[in-house]
Specification:
30% of the residues lie in helices and 23% in strands. It has 325 residues and is of the alpha/beta class. It is globular.
């Protein structure tokens, strides 16, 4: 708040990044702990105040927010977490004398809205621009003297070997939006992990430092680029079919890897429930395979995956996956 006051008072512009849409990220009962989840996905619904709706950001399911807990009937429903809509509400309340605009997938649905907001910001008609990752890349505004990253940890601690890489990219990209004019600029990163290498390097825009540290971690674990990973996801609308098929496929892959010298040196983790165990009404189980080269994994997976003939079960393979969710 103090840094924004100073930047705006001196005629500068401010960019705030929060990579979470909506107003509140979850709806919970403080009495019994119930969390309102999507009926199709095992994920909490996000409250969008503009439409007074609880929305799933994966399958777009919507429903009215509850007025009382569906489980214990307590009226004390709590809206928790911070999204871009709530951030916009707070910024407008704190800085009523300045024009604030929000850019996210919800506010930029109409044709030309993205270009209109950026043009107004470039002309100085908007002093505070906030939004999700769409404001982080490729923007050149010399009057921006302050960039604030709100809750930089949103993706840092996911069960994904690329989590640090993605966090560094996002924070470093938005940090690069400031200091492009003669006035210079400042970056403030809000985080609960100030000593994390990705956060420290991104705040300083130091790619070499991050790459050196991250590559050492990847090398020790055999992760890309020093090895190959295959993620196998088994999904079905019937949980038992997905689980049994995943277990049988995992056992077959283990047997084949141990019996064939051509596919030796493969490490197999799982199968087990995916981080998002149900998505779009399908139950998901996954396993991870590691080897020194992608060719080894292709050789191992080709036959067993092709042999899966279970009705209403889909098996997908992703080599060196970008998303482990």
């Amino acid at each position: 708040h103090q840094a924004m006051q100073a930047a705006l008072r001196d005629g500068g512009q401010v960019i705030l990044l929060l990579n979470r849409r909506g107003f509140s990220t979850h709806i919970q009962c403080p009495a019994c702990g119930f969390v309102l989840n999507c009926v199709h996905c095992e994920l909490s619904l996000t409250f969008h105040r503009q439409h007074n709706a609880a929305v799933c950001h994966y399958c777009e399911h919507q429903e009215p927010p509850p007025t009382a807990c569906p489980d214990c009937k307590s009226p004390a429903i709590r809206y928790g977490g911070l999204g871009t809509q709530k951030l916009e509400d707070e910024v407008k309340r704190r800085f009523p004398d300045y024009v604030c605009a929000r850019m996210d997938a919800d506010s930029m649905r109409s044709r030309g809205s993205h270009e209109n907001v950026l043009s107004a910001f470039r002309r100085g008609e908007i002093q505070i621009l906030l939004g999700t990752q769409m404001i982080a890349k490729g923007l050149d505004f010399p009057q921006v003297t302050l960039v604030g990253v709100i809750n930089a940890d949103t993706a840092l601690h996911l069960a994904d070997f690329r989590a640090a890489e993605r966090t560094f990219q996002l924070v470093a990209q938005v940090a690069g939006r400031t200091g492009r004019g003669q006035q210079g600029g400042r970056v403030l990163v809000q985080t609960l992990s100030p000593d994390h290498p990705a956060i420290m390097a991104a705040a300083r825009h130091d790619f070499v430092r991050f790459a050196r540290q991250e590559l050492a971690v990847r090398h020790g674990a055999g992760y890309p680029p020093y090895g190959a990973i295959a993620r196998v996801v088994v999904r079905s609308k019937q949980e038992d079919r997905a689980r049994i098929t995943a277990a049988a496929l995992g056992e077959k892959l283990r047997d084949q890897a141990s019996a064939s010298p051509a596919v030796g040196g493969v490490r197999l983790l799982g199968p087990g429930p995916a981080p998002i165990p149900r998505l779009r009404s399908e139950y998901r189980f996954h396993m991870q395979l590691q080897a020194s080269a992608a060719e080894t994994l292709n050789e191992l997976l080709r036959g067993p995956v092709k042999d899966v003939k279970t009705p209403e079960v889909v098996v997908s393979v992703d080599i060196d996956p970008w998303d482990m969710q």
